Amino acid sequence: MQVLETYKPFEIQEVELSEWKQRPVKNNFFELVLIKKGEGTQCINYNEYPYTEESIFLLPPLKCHSFKIKSPSKFVFLKFTDAFFKSANRTSIDRDEWYKEASYILSNYNQLPGDIIKSEIDRTHVRKLVSMILEESRNYGEASITLIKSLMTSVLEILIRNIKKSSFYEVSQNSNDDRIHKMLTYINEHIDQPEKLKIEHLASVFSMSSTYVSEYFKKQIQIPLREYIIKAKLKLVEIRLLNSDFTISEIADDLGFTDASHLSKTFKRYVGTSIRDFKNKGEYVLLKRVACSS
To answer: Which of 84, 99, 128, 183 is 20 to 30 A off residue 204, Cα-Cα?
Structure first.
């Protein structure tokens, strides 16, 4: 086993296994898993999906995941950690952009098994980027942090591009209407821009009447539009509370809440606990939308 821990933005581990061993799980964003060789089955929340050489997965920050190894397999685990966002040297990074990208992945990826990459060109890109990160980590250490941050940004951009190609939203099984997927993507891309989430604006963007937008959304998603938007925001609140040093006032301002008090009351109503108790417990609530069961 080779473990390479690179200072700020991430941790990386390259390991060859014949038998799966449970690994520690933290709430710090997610892990990308690249299969270098071998075959077997990935399991997340008791859903299974076969893996082979060059398969690429995302592991959510939940305990219900494992791999059933059929033939000796080499894994590369690339963990996006919270350390990057808590760096004191904020002048050298755009933490808001990193947060927006990392949060987009974590709040929208459906935590089901399956290869995350939809394009073979992108698969090649990711494989090359991960190889470069491994080489930089082994040979240059701290001198490579700036380059590694750039490589990490490229990995994130590729993941987001492929997630947007996926049908990962929970929609009515009887729906063949592609508009709902486009609407959900639009809402999540503009979740921090309240003006773009107003009924009148959504009606204009998706060529619907203002009176029909809410009815259409609820029919497709099974929950009211307003509730969906609030919960989508609160998922990002959970991420920031557990993985950053943003203040409650900063979070409220960034995500369009009136003030810290409004955010605290909304959080308690939908999450079922106070922000203080949530932080003390240190576990996601709304992000665990696919519950582990036996």
So the answer is: 99
Least confident of 7-11, 44-48, 180-184, 275-279: 7-11
Specify the pTM.
Answer: 0.71
What is the rounded distance in angstroms from the CA atom of residue 107 to the CA atom of residue 221? 16
Is the confidence at residue 40, as pLDDT, over 80? yes
Query: Domain 179-281 in CATH: superfamily?
Result: Homeodomain-like (1.10.10.60)
CATH class of 2-163: mainly beta
